[in-house]
Amino acid sequence: MAPEPTYYVQISDPEEEPERWHTVARVEGRELADEVVRLAQGTYMRATVTAETRYRARALSRSHLRKEKRLAHADWELGMGEQRHYGRALVERAREHLGR
Fold first, then answer.
1. How many domains does the chain have?
2. Residue 42 placed within a domain
3. Are 12 and 20 spatial neighbours (Cβ–Cβ below 8 Å)?
4. What is the pTM (predicted TM-score) of this model?
5. Does residue 26 form part of some domain?
6. Which of 9, 33, 35, 85 fits 94 for a cystine, CB–CB 3.0-4.6 Å?
7. What are the E-state strand segments in the chain?
8. 7, 60 in Cβ contact below 8 A?
């Protein structure tokens, strides 16, 4: 059985100008990536969320980031970025939801 592909989950804060994507998580498999994206787009771990302040979220494959020459920066953000703790909490909750 082939290993599951690796996805990087990124969020964008609509109040941040210009729009910038922040890498918050690296996960194995599309199902887990989709659940982390779903949680990030909601209100999980955020005190006040309105329609205007909801994060946008997306999951990009490792190969996509490599092709765009953004993989090194995504890996750096996972270790040093401001949102890394939020991302870890999202992944933990997503795993609970999926029973992993």
1. 1
2. yes
3. yes
4. 0.88
5. yes
6. 35
7. 6-12, 21-28, 56-61
8. yes
- pLDDT band of residue 13 (cuts 50, 70, 90) is confident
CA 10 from centre of chain: 4
Structure-token pair, residue 74: 């995504």
* Residue 1 within a domain: no
Is cis: bond before 5, omega within 30 of 0?
Answer: no
Residue 19 lies in a domain: yes
For the stretch 62-66, contacts whose Cβ atoms lie closer than 8 Å and that sit 24 or more positions apart, written own/partner, are 62/5, 62/6, 62/7, 62/8, 63/5, 65/8
- Domain with 10, as residue range(s), is 6-98
The predicted model gives 85-99 an average pLDDT of 93
Please identify which residue in the block is written with the tokens 């787009």. 41
